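Help needed: design a sequence for this.
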C-alpha cells in the first residue's frame, strides 16, 4: 500500500507510527473526499500500526477503533495547541465538553409567541423588553448545548443540583432547540458568547413539549414570564423552578448535579 500525505516531517524527529482506516457503505462520491458519503450508511473504523519494510512504511493488521483510542490521540494532539487562559466563569474545558455558568441578571428578552395562551397581559404580541433570568449553567458538546438553571447565583460545584431552565425553546431533556440558529463551529471559551446569544438573544416563539410543567404554582411557564413582565420584576423566582429531570417523573430521589451532567456528556 502506498502512503502519501501532505505532511512534511521536520527536524523534531517525527515518524509515521499509526494509521486509521475508515470504511463506509458505497454511495455517491462527494466533492470533499474526507466527508461521510451517506449519513444513513454503515461505517467502521480500524487503527493500525505502521512498520518500516525496506525503508517504506507498511500498514499492518489492526484493531477496531475505540473511543479510548480517540481520546488518547485527541489528548496527544491537544498538547500541540497553545495554552488558553480561561474566563473565571468556565467550569470545565475538555476536548469534548465545555461547561460554564452565568449569574442571575436582567436581560433584554425577545418574545413572539406563535400560539399565545388566553389571558396574557404583556406577551400576547411580539415584544422586546427587559426580564430577569436566574443563574444558568451551560454544557456544550460537539452536538448539543445543555441549558440549565441554578438555584443560587454563585459558582456551582460538582454536587450542585441543577434545575430546569425557564428559557423557552429548551427541551425538557435540557437540550436547546436550535431551529434556524447558526451553531458555533467550536466548543472553546471563545465560542461562549455565540452559545449565549443563541439562548438569550433569539426570539422565544413557543414552549417545547413538557416545558409548561417545569415550574410550580399556577399558570405554567409562559404565564410566569407574562407576570414578571407585567410587574416589571428585577429578580426571577428561582424557587418556582423544578429540579431537572423531575417533569413527568414525580419526586426525584437523587437530584441531577453538575458533576453528573459532566460525566454523562463525556461518555456520550
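Sure. Designed sequence:
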Amino acid at each position: 500500500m502506498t502512503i502519501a500525505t501532505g505532511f512534511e516531517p521536520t527536524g523534531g524527529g517525527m515518524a509515521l507510527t499509526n494509521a486509521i482506516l475508515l470504511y463506509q457503505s458505497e454511495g455517491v462520491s462527494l466533492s470533499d473526499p474526507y466527508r461521510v458519503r451517506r449519513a444513513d450508511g454503515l461505517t467502521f473504523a480500524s487503527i493500525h500500526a505502521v512498520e518500516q519494510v525496506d525503508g517504506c512504511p507498511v500498514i499492518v493488521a489492526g484493531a477496531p477503533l475505540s473511543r479510548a483510542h480517540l481520546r488518547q490521540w485527541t489528548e496527544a494532539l491537544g498538547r500541540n495547541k497553545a495554552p488558553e487562559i480561561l474566563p473565571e466563569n468556565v467550569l470545565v474545558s475538555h476536548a469534548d465538553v465545555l461547561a460554564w455558568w452565568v449569574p442571575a441578571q436582567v436581560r433584554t428578552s425577545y418574545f413572539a409567541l406563535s400560539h399565545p395562551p388566553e389571558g396574557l397581559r404583556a406577551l400576547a404580541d411580539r415584544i422586546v423588553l427587559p426580564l430577569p433570568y436566574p443563574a444558568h449553567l451551560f454544557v456544550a458538546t460537539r452536538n448539543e448545548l445543555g441549558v440549565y438553571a441554578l438555584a443560587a447565583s454563585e459558582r456551582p460545584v460538582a454536587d450542585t443540583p441543577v434545575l430546569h431552565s425557564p428559557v423557552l425553546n429548551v427541551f425538557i431533556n435540557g437540550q436547546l432547540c436550535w431551529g434556524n440558529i447558526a451553531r458555533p463551529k467550536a466548543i472553546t471559551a471563545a465560542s461562549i458568547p455565540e452559545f449565549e446569544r443563541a439562548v438569550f438573544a433569539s426570539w422565544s416563539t413557543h414552549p417545547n413539549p413538557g416545558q409548561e410543567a417545569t415550574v410550580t404554582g399556577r399558570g405554567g411557564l409562559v404565564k410566569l414570564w407574562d407576570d414578571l413582565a407585567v410587574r416589571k420584576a428585577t429578580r426571577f423566582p428561582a424557587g418556582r423552578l423544578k429540579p431537572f429531570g423531575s417533569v413527568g417523573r414525580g419526586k426525584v430521589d437523587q437530584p441531577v448535579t453538575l458533576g453528573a451532567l459532566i460525566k454523562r456528556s463525556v461518555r456520550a
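The CA atoms of residues 136 and 149 lie 4 Å apart.
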